[in-house]
Design brief:
Molybdopterin biosynthesis moea protein, domain 2, alpha+beta, globular, two-stranded antiparallel sheet, 15 helices
Length: about 400
């Protein structure tokens, strides 16, 4: 099976994974094995579905890489969050069910622990609320990153028992609720398609403090500080601003290891997921572009230890993605290379002249070995400007690559 952007669906393509109904994790718009009607594409986009999995001969083994349990747990988490908020909003004054949030995060954590260190990064694909889908995605992604940082968590949380220090449930809970304060903001400003004015930006930047007020006393302090400090940067930039409660005078911002380690993890995954997700005012960017922008535009924002591990586990090219190689051939990404993330394993599906290849399994290329070949385009977009400079030290640099 392969990932296909809905704009690139063609008549006759058959689903390899079902398309769920956003509002209910157990119902599906289309089941596996059904052909995708092209007139359904506008509706999929309205629901935030921009990629689907379709069948492809001799690539069925990718179904073993796709973790159906994790996918189900993410959709269940989204559904439980959505229902929890709806109950609170429909019944004025009704409290959020904090224990329901904790149970949902614990279920996702258990699924992650059973499938540790999977190379398949699975974003929630179906949603009808960006805020809830983003919260679900970063909850999953933060715990996945935390699994690769266990020793660092023990070191940074040294006042706690090692088992408690590396327990990721409070990190996940904090991330699930990190943007809760946005429900108190004017949606006309929050969802404004154009650039915000400085006054509007200051207004939106109140959401960590608003969220902290909502969760304080209901969830653990370790989870609550994620809500408060998920926009605090390693170098002291970010928000909220600190003020002395007695005098009202400004205080120096938290910086570096003054920031709780869970909040430092939150900063990284929040930036990545927001940029790789379609929103009302910006299209989703491919992961390789977001990783490039994080490494070039966000210098000094992230804990260097966390940042280094993050770049090792996030594939610049998602498994199952159809890509164009520098020699003109088309291929599908079939494996992730943690040592050289920009050189995954691929299987060719079309030759340089565009002719279909009948046996992709017999035409596998490990780009870590074939270093004169690289991925040039993803979904028709040129991605060569987003490779790190070190990549070109071992790869012939084409003339069109921006320096």
């Amino acid at each position: 099976m392969i990932r296909v952007h809905v704009d690139h669906l063609t008549p006759g393509m058959v689903l390899a994974r079902p398309i769920p109904v956003p509002s209910h994790p157990g119902r599906f718009l289309l089941q596996r094995g059904q052909r995708v009607p092209l007139n359904l594409v506008p509706r999929l986009k309205r629901w935030g579905i921009y990629e689907v999995w379709v069948q492809y001969p001799q690539l069925e083994f990718l179904e073993e890489v796709f973790d159906a349990e994790l996918d189900e747990q993410q959709r269940e988490l989204y559904h439980r969050v959505r229902c929890n908020f709806q109950r609170s909003m429909e019944h004025t004054g009704a409290a959020l069910d904090w224990q329901e949030f904790e149970r949902a995060v614990s279920s996702l954590n258990e699924a992650l622990q059973r499938n540790r260190f999977s190379a398949m990064l699975q974003k929630l694909q179906a949603y009808d609320s960006y805020l809830m889908a983003h919260s679900t995605n970063v909850c999953y992604l933060s715990m996945l990153l935390g699994m690769h940082l266990e020793e660092y968590l023990i070191q940074q949380r040294r006042l706690k028992d090692p088992r408690e220090a590396r327990d990721l449930r409070q990190l996940g809970l904090g991330m699930l609720l990190h943007d809760l304060g946005k429900v108190r903001l004017d949606p006309r400003i929050l969802n404004k398609p154009g650039r915000l004015t400085p006054e509007e930006m200051d207004y939106v930047r109140r959401h960590p403090e608003l969220g902290y007020e909502m969760v304080r006393g209901h969830i653990s302090p370790a989870a609550a500080v994620v809500v408060l400090h998920h926009h605090q940067r390693w170098d002291g930039r970010g928000y909220p601003r600190r003020v002395d409660s007695a005098t009202g005078e400004p205080m120096p911002p938290l910086r570096q290891r003054q920031i709780p380690v869970f909040a430092r993890i939150a900063t990284v995954v929040d930036v990545f997921d927001a940029a790789t997700t379609h929103r009302c005012y910006s299209a989703a960017k491919p992961p390789i572009r977001v990783l490039h922008e994080m490494q070039t535009w966000c210098q000094g924002m992230f804990d260097p230890v966390i940042e280094k591990v993050f770049y090792r586990i996030i594939p610049p090219f998602p498994i199952g993605k159809v890509v164009e190689l520098s020699n003109g051939a088309q291929a599908v990404v079939v494996d992730f290379n943690a040592e050289e993330p920009y050189r995954p394993k691929v299987q060719l599906i079309r030759t340089e002249k565009g002719q279909p290849i009948s046996s992709p399994a017999l035409n596998e290329m490990d780009l870590a070995i074939y270093q004169d070949v690289f991925i040039r385009r993803v979904d028709g977009q040129e991605v060569t400007p987003y490779y790190p400079e070190a990549f070109w030290e071992t790869t012939p640099r084409p003339e069109y690559v921006l320096s």
